Amino acid sequence: AQSVAQPEDQVNVAEGNPLTVKCTYSVSGNPYLFWYVQYPNRGLQFLLKYITGDNLVKGSYGFEAEFNKSQTSFHLKKPSALVSDSALYFCAQLESGAGSYQLTFGKGTKLSVIP
Amino acid sequence: DTGVSQDPRHKITKRGQNVTFRCDPISEHNRLYWYRQTLGQGPEFLTYFQNEAQLEKSRLLSDRFSAERPKGSFSTLEIQRTEQGDSAMYLCASSLTGTVKNTEAFFGQGTRLTVV
Known about the structure:
Chain A is mainly β. Helices cover 0% and strands 50% of the residues of chain A.
């Protein structure tokens, strides 16, 4: 079965430092991969997606993600963390063969940016 | 606010009761999705509609669950004979018709169900 793993339940980083939130996927062929962010009492917000093309994908709020096929990873990164980046981050992949947003999500990683 | 809206935001019900949630998608979006998110987990896909047609249902959607989108606009999700295991956040999302490459899915804030 298709799955997405986020190995860290929580990531703590100091404000101004670079951050990485890890994600690995399992799907054969070419995966479609996504990152979403969830703030308290707010819906999931789209950050970025990888469909094809450049392995480095740039998204909203200064985030980017690197697709690595050999390591089946899609880690989320930001060069300089802000306190306002503190939230719950979800990695997701599209169900194989799905023509719409049938996504398999990871468990989520709580990011805390410390002032 | 022109985003995806869900009603109610919170629902507490007794075990065995029926509940119904509503989702209003972004007005021009043809596709509508329901997801369920339990504590400490990511959202899980339940079902989706294109216009009024229900095109896909997850095996998570037991016989007690039914979703409708009668006029291709808003959707309802009904849970009959609720169980404590149904306690979760129910998320609705919508998107335009098209490939994943050139569309985005927008999520609502969710309806939090607590079954006591």
